[in-house]
Amino acid sequence: MSTRRVRPSRSTGPCTRTGESGFTLIELIIVLSIIGLLVGLGLPQYKSATIKAREAVLKENLFILRRLIDQYAQDKGKYPASLQALVQDSYIRTIPVDPFTRQATSWVEVRELPSPEDPLLNEIPGVIDVKSGSEEKSPIDGTPYNTW
């Protein structure tokens, strides 16, 4: 029987004084501190970008809903009784989700004021505008989202 020496496989890590392969504690601490520093620098940028994106979606949703309310009023001669009327009459497939409340039911419907000489006083006043149901304020300009 031959006695052949088997060489240990080479690893990619550095060798320690005892001949074992691996990384030292100081190397691991340096790598983790660099990763922590990069995350610390990138997190505020990420949060700012997500808020700007949600604000852009809110502005777009408000623009679309207001345009559809005006289109409905031009076509029917009266404002819609609710936002759901836009869906029922096929002006829009579904009511969009408010990006800050994350609900499609949180929109605040602004209704027209009926005039006292209006013969149709018992009819529900129509929706003339829509606003966000969010109570949050924009960190960029400080205005509440429900005033946009």
Would you write up a description of this structure?
This protein has 148 residues and is mainly alpha-helical. The protein has one domain. Helices cover 39% and strands 6% of the residues. The chain has 2 helices and 2 strands. The protein has a two-stranded antiparallel ribbon. The relative contact order is 0.11. The mean pLDDT is 87.
Structural class: mainly alpha
List segments where confidence is low: pLDDT < 50 over at least 5 consecutive residues.
Answer: none
Straight-line distance between termini: 88 Å
In DSSP terms (H or I, runs of 4 or more residues), the helix count works out at 2
Principal-axis shape equals elongated
**Number of separate strands:** 2
What Rg do the Cα atoms give? 31 Å
**Strands in their spatial order, largest beta sheet:** 1-2
User: In total, how many domains does the architecture comprise?
Assistant: 1
Give a short summary of the structure.
The chain has 148 residues and is mostly helical. It has helices at residues 25-76, 83-88, and strands spanning 108-111, 127-131.
Keywords:
two-stranded antiparallel ribbon; mainly alpha
Detail the topology: elements first, then pairings:
Layout: H1 25-76, H2 83-88, E1 108-111, E2 127-131
